[in-house]
Amino acid sequence: xxxxxxxxxxxxxxxxxxxxxxxxxxxxxxxxxxxxxxxxxxxxxxxxxxxxxxxxxxxxxxxxxxxxxxxxxxxxxxxxxxxxxxxxxxxxxxxxxxxxxxxxxxxxxxxxxxxxxxxxxxxxxxxxxxxxxxxxxxxxxxxxxxxxxxxxxxxxxxxxxxxxxxxxxxxxxxxxxxxxxxxxxx
Length: 186
Hints:
The structure is a single chain. This protein has a domain at 49-134. 42% of the residues lie in helices and 0% in strands. It has five helices and no strands. The chain is elongated, with a radius of gyration of 29 Å.
């Protein structure tokens, strides 16, 4: 009975709230909210197209190193009309965005926390789709190099702003809209 009473007393003590003002026994482990300091959170990754100035240039340099030193030698495949490439890919904003997202995903999936299948998931879910989008015959590099013997670079123009954007800008006298289908703008 005495042992049971001691165990009950010990359980009550462990279940009670810690004394205010006293240091927590978890301080040494950096437990937040218990007197310890919260571990520093890694910075949130931002899409490269949201960066500006030197921050953008630094990220583009790091991305270019990864593309040139890892991605192309391993996954570059031959340049053909079915798989175009551009030596100036950094000037194609959509390609930069795709490759940056692929690089961020690569970093995440190669992390030990991703587990043993992390890189397989990266290949299946990220690499195959991104490369197909960037290097497709009708993709963003389709007007660029289709043969290593004929290097070429051309940025295709995107679609014009939507009709709604044009209507919103009607207060601007410099913006004119067509009068109707087939009619010239005034």
